[in-house]
Amino acid sequence: MVTSASVQLLRQHGLTILPQLLTLLEVTALLHCIESAPAAGANFRRSQDVFAIRNLLEEIAALGALLNTAALRDVLGELFPTGCHLTKAIYFDKPAGSNWLVAWHQDLMINVEHRADVLGFGPWTAKAGWVAVQPPVEVLENTITVRLHLDDCDATNGALKVVPGSHRRGVVPAETIAGQTATAAVCAVPAGGALLMKPLLLHASNRSTSDRPRRVVHLEFSAQELPAGLVWRERRALWHAR
Ligand SMILES: O=C(O)CCC(=O)C(=O)O
């Protein structure tokens, strides 16, 4: 499913697209499971036009089994030959005609159970019971995000825009980001496809101008363990190497 060429693309450009990771049946089952869940609680963020579910696998426990597909296990086995664990899971809906846009950024923060002052970890944030910290760059370099697309997604319904290769620039100062996006590319992904990306890749997304939704399950994986005292908030050893 994931070829050595796509692993090479991920290393070189910071992203690769797998157009057919989930079957239509699997997509339908995921959508049914998510949309029939009672959408209440602090981790469900719904406003006029943005809907996100954080800590997704704890909020909707039945998703764990549906996401643990042979195809995803194969991909992760290729990317992490010694095994890996999930570190974050979020569901993003960008509803039709959504006003929600995301400015250019890198994904720099990880969620942990508790604060522990460990060398190389910081700054820290704590909001609504969530503790997040910026880890050393090696942790971010060794994380891979898998965005599972549940709808056809293109420039009209809020596809991710990325700056290929920008993950190799390390953590970039926020004030320099605007000057680094001239080579941005739009990542169109069909329903059932996956966008694999490195968290340090500069990325953003536009408002939707379409009447189609853009539903995505965002999963982050790592093979690394955190130093003593720190525990990934959503750590799950669900996915194993082949
Ligand atoms: O889904 C999107 O449009 C953007 C999400 C994003 O930037 C993120 O998860 O860091």
What layout of secondary structure does this protein have?
Layout (H helix, E strand, L loop, with lengths): L3 H10 L1 E4 L5 H12 L8 E3 L4 E3 L2 H4 L3 H5 L2 H10 L5 E10 L7 E4 L4 E3 L11 E4 L2 E4 L3 H5 L1 E7 L10 E3 L22 E3 L6 E4 L5 E3 L8 E9 L20
Antiparallel strand pairs: 1-12, 2-3, 3-4, 4-14, 5-13, 6-8, 7-8, 9-12, 9-14, 10-11, 10-13
Alpha-beta content class: alpha+beta
Task: Work out the oligomeric state of the chains in this entry.
Answer: single chain
How much of the polypeptide forms β-strand, as a percent range?
25-35%
> What would you call the shape?
globular
Number of self-contained structural domains: 1
C-alpha termini separation: 13 Å
Named CATH topology: Jelly Rolls
Q: Give the class-level CATH name.
A: Mainly Beta
The percent range for helix content is 10-25%
Poorly predicted residue ranges: none
| Radius of gyration (Å) | 17 Å
CATH architecture: Sandwich
- The fourth-level CATH homologous superfamily is q2cbj1_9rhob like domain
Q: Tags for this entry?
A:
Jelly Rolls; 6 helices; 26% strand; 242 residues; binds 2-oxoglutaric acid; 7-stranded antiparallel beta sheet; alpha+beta
Provide a short characterization of the protein structure.
The protein has 242 residues and is of the alpha+beta class. The chain is built from 6 helices and 14 strands.
